[in-house]
């Protein structure tokens, strides 16, 4: 039977990039696969991000990410949802995979090259990040992995690690495939500086639980078509991040209206932003209300995470025992 696995880092406030890029897929696949779908707050991975990691905030951010996933519709009674560090088999399998993964393969990872180039001292964990990710996936013999397109190279490495282990120690792991949310692979940051990312700070993101007045303050000054200098200048929605947000939040009639009216200067950028704000408000308000309910009952959230860890370990433990046997570890 097919099995789904994906993880999300607790390195900042959950934002609409997380929602459209990952969480929506979690909900959709969770309904389809039920308990054969596992979703994980990858707090171990968070340690590899020096720019975002904060030991004083890690536990709270982990809890916040669970709240966010539940608030958008992921039902912890229907899927397996847990925290990575609560299942120690992740680290154990990662070490086994480390011993069969060439350093050269890891140094060729685009994300590693991008992130290490910004650091004066590169932690070894940043290099080993994709190996731990492979362990996360293969520990559950998952063959379906909903990820953002920036993780494609890591999924390919995971497939290669599975092949190497199977060749060396016998058939054990499937080769997983990536599944993308075709509606929104890359959500632009509200600052107009590339992809929306927690690592760029709050100026780049629109938070799932951010107050509406704060979201509007960011949208109001967000860049639009740079060629549209005056209200009377026709615009090009295809190069405007606000139009990208319309595709996410607005109904079809509004999207079509903006597409036509912007091109003929029939609508100004402020009115266009007000129209998308209407869609954002309608979309996020129920999510924020559900988030408040969950924060008022955090014990139930913690109970759900504990149950998820037990269910995850029930799958992980026999797989890890099989790995120990195949690599030849001594049994007592």
TrEMBL record:
Q: Where in the cell is it found?
A: Cytoplasm
**Superkingdom classification of source:** Bacteria
Main site of residence?
cytoplasm
Q: Which UniProt keywords apply?
A: Aminoacyl-tRNA synthetase, ATP-binding, Cytoplasm, Ligase, Nucleotide-binding, Protein biosynthesis
List, alphabetically, the InterPro entries matched: aa-tRNA-synth_I_CS, aa-tRNA-synth_Ic, Rossmann-like_a/b/a_fold, Trp-tRNA-ligase, Trp-tRNA-ligase_bac-type, Trp-tRNA_synthetase
Short sequence motif named 'HIGH' region, residue ranges: 10-18
Any single GO molecular-function term of the entry would be:
tryptophan-tRNA ligase activity
So which residues are the signal peptide here?
Answer: none
Pfam families from the UniProt entry: tRNA-synt_1b
Which NCBIfam families does the record match to this protein?
trpS (TIGR00233)
Spell out the subunit comment. Homodimer.
Question: What name goes with this protein?
Answer: Tryptophan--tRNA ligase
